[in-house]
Specification:
By secondary structure, the protein is mostly helical. It contains 8 helices and 2 strands; from the N terminus they run H-H-H-H-E-E-H-H-H-H. The chain has a two-stranded antiparallel sheet with strand order 1-2.
Length: about 180
Amino acid sequence: MADKSAVESSKQEGIAVPRRKRRPLPKTLQLNVYRRDNWLCYWCKRAVIFSPAFKLLQLDLQSSGFDKVAYYHPHGTRRDAPLLDELGAAIDHVHAFSSGGACSEENFRTSCWKCNVRKNDAAVQKWEQREKRSPIKGKYGEPTHWDGLTSLFILIAERNPSLLTDTERDWLSALKAMRPCSLAD
């Protein structure tokens, strides 16, 4: 991996830096980060939503005759998925990958889509200087049992396995393997 300071100085001098190839993150690693951060955006403290849950919820509702629901869109657009546009869960690199930041759990934070897009590849110091969304602080404390709607995802996925893509089956397996207890226990 390129030395981070060398990458930064090269960017400032306008020297082309070879791009590193980003590998897909394992589902269990992503879930570890979301759970570690209590499914709250590290930057604005808003509760985030596991977007595959909204996708299955929309498909389930549409198959039940609810044609015009706006819960999910692959790009989380405001028109087609207003809650995901605001609160979709994302994994953010604190030190940007494009600037040499590590792909490690220590460098990952849970982020809402809005903060992730706004931060982009900014260095933490520059990001801290930008105007951000006002952090949320709950009147009665932080959520203690929020799961990003992963329980809803498991419920719908198990009830309608034909709706699942291969990626969603992988999510289901990862979630079930990490689940502390089942409803039957």
